[in-house]
């Protein structure tokens, strides 16, 4: 059971596969399947509330498949148990990002003073650049 805020995800919703890790490690890497590939079906999970699911699926994440399955690969540590724990922590963090709805942006206009300052800067910059041209040199 994975607990993220108010959401509880059952263990049968998570698919864990243990594979051999890549990278350095010598003979141990070639013998032992310590890396963890954790799959979580975001689109079909009954544990996720609909707004959270929609926010998670809307994220442009390369770890998400076209079917809405999140695939996390954990191979940072030497032991299978530690990699398994790492994958679950990363899944919890991913779901946590979908819990909070983004605050809607309120469109504002620049103040009159700010507009005048900006235009004054532009005029000043234009006169500096005009002064650099070679007109009137004789």
Automatic annotation (TrEMBL):
<dbReference type="GO" id="GO:0004045">
    <property type="term" value="F:peptidyl-tRNA hydrolase activity"/>
</dbReference>
<dbReference type="Pfam" id="PF00472">
    <property type="entry name" value="RF-1"/>
</dbReference>
<feature type="domain" description="Prokaryotic-type class I peptide chain release factors">
    <location>
        <begin position="20"/>
        <end position="36"/>
    </location>
</feature>
<dbReference type="InterPro" id="IPR000352">
    <property type="entry name" value="Pep_chain_release_fac_I"/>
</dbReference>
<dbReference type="GO" id="GO:0043022">
    <property type="term" value="F:ribosome binding"/>
</dbReference>
<dbReference type="GO" id="GO:0003747">
    <property type="term" value="F:translation release factor activity"/>
</dbReference>
<feature type="region of interest" description="Disordered">
    <location>
        <begin position="101"/>
        <end position="138"/>
    </location>
</feature>
<feature type="compositionally biased region" description="Basic and acidic residues">
    <location>
        <begin position="113"/>
        <end position="124"/>
    </location>
</feature>
<keyword id="KW-0378">Hydrolase</keyword>
<protein>
    <submittedName>
        <fullName>Aminoacyl-tRNA hydrolase</fullName>
        <ecNumber>3.1.1.29</ecNumber>
    </submittedName>
</protein>
<dbReference type="GO" id="GO:0072344">
    <property type="term" value="P:rescue of stalled ribosome"/>
</dbReference>
């Amino acid at each position: 059971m994975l607990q993220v805020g108010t959401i509880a995800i059952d263990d049968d919703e998570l698919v864990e596969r243990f594979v051999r890790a890549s990278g350095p490690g010598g003979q141990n890497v070639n013998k032992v399947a310590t890396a963890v590939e954790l799959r979580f079906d975001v689109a079909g999970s009954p544990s996720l509330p609909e707004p959270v699911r929609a926010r998670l699926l809307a994220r442009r994440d390369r770890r998400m498949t076209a079917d809405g399955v999140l695939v996390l690969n954990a191979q940072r540590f030497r032991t299978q148990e530690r990699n398994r724990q790492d994958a679950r922590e990363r899944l919890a963090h991913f779901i946590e990002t979908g819990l909070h709805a983004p605050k809607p942006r309120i469109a504002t206009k620049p103040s009159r003073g700010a507009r005048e300052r900006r235009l004054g800067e532009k005029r000043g910059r234009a006169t500096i650049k005009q002064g650099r041209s070679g007109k009137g040199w004789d």
